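Recall from the previous lesson that a structure prediction takes nothing but the amino acid sequence as input. Here we apply that procedure to Cytochrome P450 from Cyanomargarita calcarea GSE-NOS-MK-12-04C. The sequence below is the only information supplied.
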Amino acid sequence: MNTSTTSSPIPSGPNGHFLLGALPEYSRNPLEFMSKCARTYGDVVYLTGLIPSYLLNHPDFIEEMLVTQHQHLIKSQLGKITKPLLGNGLLLSEGDFWKQQRHLIQPAFHRSRIAAYAEVMIDYTQRMLNTWLPGEIRDIHHEMMNLTLMIAAKTFFGSEIESDVDVIDRAVKAMLEHFDRRSTNLLLFLLPDYVPTLGNLRFRHAIKQLDTVVYRLIQERRSSGKQTDDLLSMLLYLQAEDGTRMSDRQVRDEVNTFLLAGHETTALTLSWAWYLLSKHPEVEAKLLAELQTVLMGRSPSLSDLPRLRYTEWIILETMRLYPPVWAIPRTVAQDCEIAGYPIKAGHGLVASPWVVHRDPRWFSNPDQFNPDRWNNDFAKNLPTFAYFPFGGGSRICIGKAFAMMEACLLLAAIASTYRIRLVSQEAVKPWASLTLRPKQAIKVCLNRR
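The prediction returns the following tokens.
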């Protein structure tokens, strides 16, 4: 591979189907397809199709996409698939409206504010552990999803939602299934949401059920008149520069965005971490040694995090191998140039952490799970976009610090109490949907330490 470009206006890439382009091969196995393209065609790959796209595989070109040329780009047209659920929330909104929302919401994720959430995280983790029994077999992915959802609801919205967990879980699954169908099938992608297909009907039903929960939370808080330090109060009472406040619909969009995106990515990181730790007992032994030295038998707290270095490396290494957001797409809104190639408006760009995080130019033995690689300030010596599990540029994940704190605290709290072992040594395959989920349940046996 090399980063040089040629005089050709179009980089090389797979020939693809005469009508559908790269879509058929991509839809069979997106992860393998993108990895193969990077190995075969290099740092910029041209993907034919109804929407011609460019796969960027070098940190410098990804930086162009996310930083230096970002003003010419918008969120991918794939975003319209999740629009009925996430609306005009921070994840999908654009332009000046996005800037205003980001400015209003940013204080909710100030370091001093998220520090107060640490006790909630440990409290809910302890509640979960109290329901576990030694020798039980559980789906650890399901457990992590429930746990992080409860934490998100409490920290962001000050609410206990145990009775609503199933409704939210169904909405998440419906969204992912809906995205999967629509993003890999050209006819379904072009089909309007209002057409009453079975898939569209299921998706709309899940949204309606979730809206019932979310609008109830909004109305309860409005009726109480109570202002607290959580995100929901900020959404309800903060004013824009012109004095206007968010409508219930806009609050709903932001609540859905944070409730769904704010818990699933951390749950996925932890799910893959337990999978990897069970496969690598030597790494687990190092983790346990650190926990025994630092915690000495007690629950972790925020003040412990600076000394839980190896714990953090495990999270970083897990997100390298299994980045929750495995691909970052954009649509070109105005003609521009990236990697030396002229890119036309309407074309697509995509950068894949899954691909770049496994590039041997940046990571030796890239397929090996090795948390020790993060020692000696390894991250500081990497090109900026050789490792980007939280995206980058102005649209870097607003909850990055929250997610890292939560993942480290939960990993430490659970690992110091239970040894988690895979029931089967059969490989768990990743499912590249909107996020990188395990394709099957991760069944584990719980053994108390």
